[in-house]
Protein: HpcH/HpaI aldolase/citrate lyase family protein
Organism: Hoeflea alexandrii
Amino acid sequence: MTQTSPFRPVRPRRSALYLPANNARALEKLPQLACDSAVIDLEDSVAPGAKDEARESLRRFFRDGRAAALPDGVETVIRINSLSSPWGAEDLLAARGCKPGAILIPKVETPEDIIAVEDALEQTDAALSLRLWAMIETPRGVMNAGHIARTARSDGARLDCLITGTNDLMKETGVASLPGRPWLSSWLMQIVLAARAYGLDVLDGVYNDFRDEAGLKRECDEGRAMGFDGKTLIHPAQIGPANQAFGIPAGQLAEAKAIAEAFSLPENQDRGVISLDGKMVERLHLEMAERLIEKAARIAARHDGDHTT
C-alpha cells in the first residue's frame, strides 16, 4: 500500500459540491451545507466573459475570512482553467494566493499536466500542504490514468485525488447516458484502479438531474460499489444522499476496530499475518482499517446527521 504523505491527511470526501466562483448567493450559503469538500469553480460554470469577475469574487471570499470561517472539516478546493487556456495562468496565481486545501486541474491528459502545475507552485514557494486534484474527463486522460496517478509517487508530489468528468467524457466519446452507465463503467473502473494503485482518493462524476433523488441514490450506490470514495455534486440537495451512500456502515467500522485491536495485542505486534474470526488478516488490512477508523472519526466530528458514521 502506498505510504501516506504527512501532507495527505486521511479525510472524508463523500460529497464534493461545485459552486461557481461568481455566484455570491451560493458562497454565502456554504457555511450551512454539510458537504465534505467545496469546489469553487473558475472553469466550466463561469462564462468566458465572466472569468475576471469570478476570479475577483474568489479572492474576496478568501480575503474577507469567509473561507476560514467554514465549519471544521470542510475542504476548500479551487478549480482553475487549464494552463493552456487564456485564463489558466492567472487562475493559478489567484488560487495559490488564496491558499485553499487543493487546486483542481481540469482536463488532465498526461503526467506533464500535473508536473507543470507543481513546477509553477514550487517556483512561487507554495507550501506543500497545498494539494492537487486532477480531472480525468477525456479519452486520452482515461488511457493515461495510471501514468497520471503515478506522479503521486515522486518527491514533492502534491496529487491527492482523481475526479471523473463523466459529462465531458460522454460528450467526447458519444457514449449514451443510460441508467447504470453500462458503456461508461469500464472506463470509470480504469480511473478507480489507477487511483488505488498509487494511494489516491477518487470521486465519481456528477448526476445532472438534481430533482431526481431516486436516480441520484441509485448512482451513488453504484459508485460506492465500484470503489469510489465519494461523488461530485451540482446542487446542495444532493449532499445528503451522497453522504449517506459513501458513509461508513457501523458493521464495517466495527470490523476495522476489531482488526486494529487484534494487531495491538502483545503477541501480534510483530506478526505480519494473524487469524481473526476464522479469517487470515494481513498488515495490509491493518493499514486499511486504521485509515477507515480515522476517516470515520472525521465524519463523526462533522455532526451532519447521517445514519452511517
Summary: The chain has twelve helices and ten strands. Residues 250-302 form one domain. The mean pLDDT is 92.
